[in-house]
Structure formats: structure tokens, C-alpha cells
Amino acid sequence: MELILDTADVQEVKRLSELLQVTGVTTNPTIITKSGKTPEQVVDEMLSVLNDDQLFFMQVIAQDFEGMMRDARKIHALRAKNVLVKIPVTHAGLKAVKAAKQEGMRVLATTIYSADQGFFAAMNGADYLAPYVNRMQSFGDGLGQVKDLLQMLKLQNLPTKIVAASFKNSYQVHELIAAGIQAVTVPPSVVWDMLDHPGTTSAVDGFSEAWHAAYGRDEVL
Ligand code: E4P
């Protein structure tokens, strides 16, 4: 499973990459605008922090086909090896997914609100699909739709990976990992929630206290 961080916060990417196996970073226009930085600053900072094996995902802004392709080529040109273009699954976007794949780009089809939208984007050759789990909950069973999409790709022998997105809590992430999802993109705050448990902190403190009380030192040997 690939763990991707959904953030423009370079410090969080550094911190979590030290602790965990992080495959890459996704951004979207909202994440970038909220960072208070220019898109160029976010791109420069992220590409300087990510290593050559990690992926960086950036989304097109234009809504028409020609504009999407212009944006996609600029994103692809940043570092073709490990920068992927995110394209929303509108009508123009589905056409752009096909065209971008024909031009040799790696593509993530995004803003997916139903299993059917994701399935058609996969048929167009998308490398990744980003269903918006939490946002889908407003229209029905988001987790169920993503699990359906997982089955549809498997049964139809499509190689596209799902990178489930738009998570608001650790339960949503846990459910999809347990269902066999190929990748998740998670905000750092939710990743920290998944890592931390008061039981672990108190157990480790208990071991240290017992050792110190018995041997008067904090080193093992
Ligand atoms: C990631 O690729 C998506 O853009 C992101 O997870 C959307 O999340 P949101 O629903 O918090 O905007």
C-alpha cells in the first residue's frame, strides 16, 4: 500500500518521511492557496524535499480541454520522472486524461464522486484514481463506493490504482486499508492520529521507570 501525504506543508512531509514509508505528496488548488505561498514556491519546496523515488501530484486549473492540456504539460515538465498530473473527471477532464496519457504523462484522475466516474477514468488509462471519500459521504456511502470501485478494477483487470482521498478521520483510512486499497492520500493531522496512542506512551514510560528504579540508569547495558 502506498501512503501519500495530502498537504503543502513541507515540514510535515519531512517529519513524516523520517518516521514512515511515504510514497509522495498530493496537492490540490485549495491546499496550495491555503498555504499562503505561491504555486511556484510550493513546487520548489516540495521538489527539494522529496527524493527521486517519491511522487509529487499537482492539479490542472483550467476547466476547458486545451487549457487543461496546457497546464498538464507545464506540470509534467517540472520533473517528468516523478511528477504526476491531476485532472478532474469532468467531460473535458476525461478527454484530457486520454490525451495526456497519449503524450506520455502520468495521470491521476481526481474529484471522483462515484465508482462509475472512477471506472471510466481507469478505462481512459489513468494511472491513479482519487475518489473523495469524505465528500462522497454527503451523497451516500462513500466508503462503499470506493470498495465497489476496487472490485470493479479487479474484476475488469484494469491496472489503475486507487489513491483514496479527502479523508477527515482515521476510521475512514483504516476501513479502506483493511479493504485492500492500493494507496491513500491523508492529511498529516490524520496520520498523526493513526500513529499516536496514549497506551503506547504510558507503557513505554512504565518500562523506563521500572528500569531506572531497579538499576539506576537509563541505558540497557
Ligand atoms: C487529494 O488529492 C484531494 O485533492 C484531497 O484529498 C481533497 O480533500 P478535501 O475534501 O479535504 O478537499
UniProtKB/TrEMBL annotation:
Residue spans crossing the bilayer: none
Primary location group: cytoplasm
Gene Ontology CC terms, in alphabetical order: cytoplasm
Any GO MF annotation of the entry: aldehyde-lyase activity
Keywords annotated in UniProt: Cytoplasm, Schiff base
Annotated Pfam families: TAL_FSA
GO biological process, one term: carbohydrate metabolic process
Top-level taxon of the source organism: Bacteria
Protein's cellular compartments: Cytoplasm
PANTHER family reported for this sequence: TRANSALDOLASE, TRANSALDOLASE C
Record protein name field: Putative fructose-6-phosphate aldolase
